[in-house]
Every structure is written in C-alpha cells, then in structure tokens.
Design brief:
The complex is a heterodimer. Chain A is about 5% helix and about 65% strand. Chain A is mostly beta strands. The radius of gyration of chain A is 16 Å and the shape is elongated. By secondary structure, chain B is an alpha+beta fold. Chain B has a two-stranded antiparallel sheet with strand order 1-2. Chain B is rod-shaped and about 120 Å long. The termini of chain B are far apart. The chains are: A mainly beta, B alpha+beta.
C-alpha cells in the first residue's frame, strides 16, 4: 500500500486545485480473480488533525468508478 | 419679612428638615441612583448583544470548520507499458466551497498499484491555477 501527499500551508474559500497523478500496475492486478485496485484520497486539516473529506477511485476492468464520500463531523467547542 | 422668615423657619426648620447641603446630597444621591440604574440597564443590553455576537461567531466558526470540496474527475486515461504494465493517469479537480484551512494535506493512498504525483496542487491564487492548466 503506497501513498503520496500534497501539502499546502493555507487554502481559502474558492481555492481551486488540479492534481495530476499516475497509477502504475501490473495487468494481473487489474484482471483476473480477486483483482482489485483502488485509490483513496483523503483531504486532511493537519492543523486540527481532522479528516475533511474522502474520495475513492476504484479501477475496475474496462474502466473506473469515482466515488465521493463526505465525512460530516460536528465540532463542539 | 420677619413673618415670612419666621414662617419659613417654622416650615423648613433645619433641625427637622435638614440644611440645603443635606437636600443637595439627597438630590445628588437620587440622580446618581437614576444614572446607575440607567448604566446597569445599558450594560445588560450590551452584554446580551455581545452574547448574540459570540453565538453568531461560534456558528460561523463551526461552518468554517466544516470544509467542503467540490471534487471532479476532470480527466483520466490509461496506457499500456510493455506487455504487463498499465498506467492510469488521473486529473482530479477540486474547489473549496467554504471556509479556509491552515496546514492542509491531501493524502493519496493506493492498494495494488504504485502511484506518483505528476504535477498540480491546490492553489489559493487563480494565477497559479491558470498556469498549471496552461491558461493565460
């Protein structure tokens, strides 16, 4: 299980992003019984150590699925 | 004059009713009480307003903490690399819809594949964003 990360000192409302990344795999990892490849994106507020949002890309035979999961947390002061 | 003076001295005898300075003190004390009451009422009003302002700030703070990104899979393509390997290239677009965040991090983890960042980032300046997209 590998991973990479992008860090920003500060982002503000309407900040826009384009993240380009490549995924390299063996054919056998994508095709065949039990083949499963997925990428997990985690948007993290490091200052508060809080997971803001996640997204997944499941690479499947002949295509991919892009799934957005929103994490809702209630912060109490 | 003597009659009036006598009459006054009977009506407002300093022994019974007090001297002018006593009356001034009473008037000043009463006026002070009135202003004190007014000040306290005003302070209570200001405190209520401050409480409301604090509650608004709290709710605004909570709303800011609840960051939401609008995510889109902008582009994806895959290429064969030799006979055994496949490379997928993804471009994810994101827009922060609310709030702001210090020390932000986007972690990408992968299972059964090796990944590497091929450029990009999350830009607070539209100029940087346009440069990455090759826009002028």
């Amino acid at each position: 299980m590998g991973g990479v990360s992008i860090q920003e000192a500060r982002i503000t409302k309407n900040s826009m992003g384009r993240i380009k990344f490549k995924s390299e795999m063996e054919r056998t990892q994508l095709f065949g019984d039990g083949a499963k490849v997925f990428l997990q994106l985690e948007f993290v507020d490091d200052a508060n150590n809080k997971l803001l949002q996640t997204a997944q890309i499941n690479i499947i035979q002949g295509g991919y699925q892009f799934v957005q999961n929103e994490i809702v947390e209630i912060l109490t002061i | 004059m003597i009659l009036i003076s006598n009459s006054f001295s009977w009506c407002l005898s300093a022994v019974i009713w007090g001297t002018v300075s006593d009356w001034v003190m009473i008037v000043v004390t009463f006026a002070t009480l009135l202003y004190l009451r007014k000040t306290l009422t005003s302070q209570l009003h200001v405190q209520k307003l401050q409480l409301k302002a604090t509650m608004i700030e709290n709710s605004r703070f909570l709303a800011d903490q609840d960051l939401r990104f609008d995510l889109q899979l902008v582009d994806s393509s895959f290429h064969s690399l030799g006979e055994n390997k496949i490379i997928h290239i993804f471009i994810i677009g994101s827009t922060l819809k609310n709030g702001n965040c210090k020390n932000f991090q986007l972690k990408i983890t992968a299972e059964n594949t090796e990944i590497s960042i091929d450029g990009g980032g999350i830009y607070t300046r539209s100029k940087d964003y346009q440069e990455f997209n090759g826009e002028n």
